[in-house]
Design brief:
Layout (H helix, E strand, L loop, with lengths): L3 E5 L5 H13 L5 E6 L8 H11 L7 E5 L4 H8 L7 E5 L2 H11 L5 E5 L7 H8 L2
Helix pairs in contact: 1-2, 2-3, 4-5
Length: 132
């Protein structure tokens, strides 16, 4: 359907999330959809970093944010408090819920970035989209 799918599902840290947001901001493809799973191995600072990254997510980076996993709710909460929040922000507990939303609601074309820590198994989303 003309969508460019980028899968970055091996490691996710605050720094790599920042780099992903910078990439999205420079992309001319529309719509831009970010499917962001939890960042793992952050210890006691996990909530802080998920909120911090979430607050950086604006409509300058993407039009739709899908946050996946219990801790990723802080991405969504942070984005909603950004100066210019994305047009749509959704939180899902599981990759299956996010995949179902994408199958039903995603517009063709544009850019879809799937990113998260390895343990989140975010590749199930991109594989599910590729396999229909």
């Amino acid at each position: 359907d003309g969508t460019v799918l980028i899968e970055d599902v091996y490691n996710s840290t605050p720094a790599s999330m920042g780099a992903a947001l910078d990439f999205l901001a420079r992309s001319s493809r529309r719509p831009r959809v970010g499917v962001f799973g939890e960042m793992w191995d952050l210890g006691d600072a996990s909530e802080h970093w998920h909120l911090h990254v979430g607050r950086q997510i604006t409509r300058d980076h993407l039009e739709t944010l899908l946050a996946v996993g219990p801790k990723a709710k802080n991405f969504a909460d942070g984005a909603l408090h950004a100066a210019r929040p994305p047009a749509e922000t959704h939180h899902f507990e599981t990759t299956g819920e996010a995949l179902q939303w994408l199958r039903t609601n995603r517009k063709p074309g544009g850019l879809l970035l799937v990113k998260g820590s390895r343990g989140m198994q975010m590749e199930t989303i991109s594989e599910g989209l590729k396999n229909g």
